[in-house]
Amino acid sequence: MINLTLRQLRYFDALARHGHFGRAAESCSISQPALSMQIKELEETLGGLLLERSARQVALTRFGEELAQRVRDILRSVDELGDFARASQDRFAGRLRIGMIPTIAPYLLPKITKNLTRMHPELDIRVRETMTPRLIQELVEGRLDTAIVALPVSEPSLTEVALFEEKFLLVRPGADEGTPAPSREMMREMRLLLLEEGHCFRDQALSFCNMQSAPPREMLDANSLSTLVQMVSAGIGVTLIPEMAVPVETRSATVSLTRFRDPEPSRTIGMVWRKTSPLARQLLQISEVVCLSAGKARPKQAARNQRA
């Protein structure tokens, strides 16, 4: 009989994800020598090399790559056993891993955390802020319980629950205050400042302007809405921001805000989680807290499963 431990599997999973002993050890809160010893014992137990080691990084062998996928499945199943036990209890307690995209987290996270802590004081809330593709990957792999993103994500293994619609506003220099909103055609002639590639909000802004790629006059790929708004305040160009970001991002910027004529650009904010998650009922309750935190009402037909 092969004797493996969950600790060894978690350490190997961390190493496979980070590709570096130091970073993997840090993520597991152990020393690098301790991690190395556990990986060596795992290799000896399985009778094969899992890694190709070099001075700066490690690479998985073919055997290691095949094992890594099986280990992720095992760890996800183990975590779901714990979720199943938690779901059978009357109270909602323990670890809750929530992912959020950067164009939502700064504006909703403080309110969501405050409300969840007040309503479920035994929850240990852990938040991951990154772009949608990474959130979906970590959710599918079982490293997150749920994520708050812009829908749709079109991942067959996930349940999507629409929470509310959010409008986009045009941000222009303060001198443009009171001038009419430009048409989509006029927007294509403006210096449109956008978030860097990978942000879904960038794609949504381009879609509204009927552009497949960034316009020739674009000067900036920013990593945050705050940078975009400050550049507009300096007279560099114009940008779009979601409604929830307005109070935070415009309070220290000399800009004008304009709503577009109908149909206004918008996005659907929603929550996603694995269809196999035992916490589905609790996560549906949390979706109500998210709407409460945003001051929005959920649409009547909110839940839907997205299929490829």
Distance between termini? 41 Å
The top-level CATH class of the largest domain is Alpha Beta
Q: What's the CATH architecture name of the largest domain?
A: 3-Layer(aba) Sandwich
Count of individual beta strands:
12
- The total domain count is 3
Largest sheet entry: 8 strands, mixed
Structural class: alpha/beta
- Helix count from the secondary structure assignment: 11
Beta-strand level of the residues, as a percent range?
A: 15-25%
> For the record, what is the CATH homologous superfamily label of the largest domain?
Periplasmic binding protein-like II
What do these coordinates show?
- This protein folds into 3 domains: 6-74, Arc Repressor Mutant, subunit A, CATH 1.10.10.10; 85-156 and 276-294, Periplasmic binding protein-like II (D-Maltodextrin-Binding Protein, domain 2, 3-Layer(aba) Sandwich); 165-266, D-Maltodextrin-Binding Protein, domain 2.
- The strands form 3 sheets. Strands 3, 4, 5, 6, 9, 10, 11 and 12 form an 8-stranded mixed sheet that branches. Strands 1-2 form a two-stranded antiparallel sheet.
- With 308 residues, it is an alpha/beta fold.
- The longest helix is centred in the N-terminal third of the chain and has 26 residues, at 62-87.
- Mean pLDDT is 86; it is low at 302-308.
- A hairpin with a 4-residue loop joins strand 1 (51-53) and strand 2 (58-60).
- It is built from 11 helices and 12 strands.
- It starts with 5 loop residues before the first helix and ends with a strand.
- This is LysR family hydrogen peroxide-inducible transcriptional activator.
- Residues 4-61 form the HTH lysR-type domain.
- InterPro entries: LysR_HTH_N, LysR_subst-bd, WH-like_DNA-bd_sf, WH_DNA-bd_sf.
- NodD regulates the expression of the nodABCFE genes which encode other nodulation proteins. NodD is also a negative regulator of its own expression. Binds flavonoids as inducers.
